[in-house]
Design brief:
264 residues, alpha+beta, D-amino Acid Aminotransferase, Chain A, domain 2, nine-stranded mixed sheet, five-stranded antiparallel sheet, 7 helices, 27% helix
Length: 264
Amino acid sequence: MSAPRQRTVWLSGRFLSEARAHVPTNCLTLSFGVGLYETLRLVHGVAPLLELHLTRLRDACSRLGLRLKQRDWAEVLAELATRNRIRNGRAKILIGDGFELATCTQLPRGLADERRKGISLMSAPLERNLAQFKDTSRLALWAAERSLGAEVLLVSARRQLLETTRANLFVVSERGLETAPATRVLPGVARGLILELARGMGVTVQLRAPSLRQRARWLEVFVSNALRGIRPVRRIDALTFAAPSASSLTRRLQRGLDERMGLS
């Protein structure tokens, strides 16, 4: 029986097998979690939203003092996808202390069902530190997911819905579309596109964290990120929501985002 084929990764300018890829053991990334990353959707071997991800990554690196070299990231990711025989999947670019790493894997299992049928979320009283950065210091988020067994909805002390451990959150109400401001949550790449699409549809957008005290007014709830796109939320703890119809705002935004991501 042949050994399983090892994945190829890209590390600081070189394509290597995972077994041969090594990062400095004394780097701040391993010691203190000092690092930034971007997770990207690959469609037919390319990352359609790459420039938006790189814009966020450059800004964050500049603010935190991490070095982001000039690279042809489109070429790196395309070659990585080819070497790993992945056409439609996910890629990650990680900028650490003294190294750069890019990886490529398959899409999460069950994603198609989540996008079609929706997801359930358990909540936890938790807010991310330095929410504006997509950083590698994810211990609190990881612990919340490990405790509750899945993606977790972060709720503030004032019972406001912020984001999940993996995605931005939106509520559709009679007042329009509500989502927490970027000062309190990760300014997601998909989030920015959704706000642009909603305004283009004439939908009123309110940048404030939805309050559980107003849940009687909610019509639809969904989450988004640039890897999974839009997924309807069918349950939050004991609260349940009807499945969005084909003409609902959730589905219209889902179709619009899919088009921007090259999925339709």
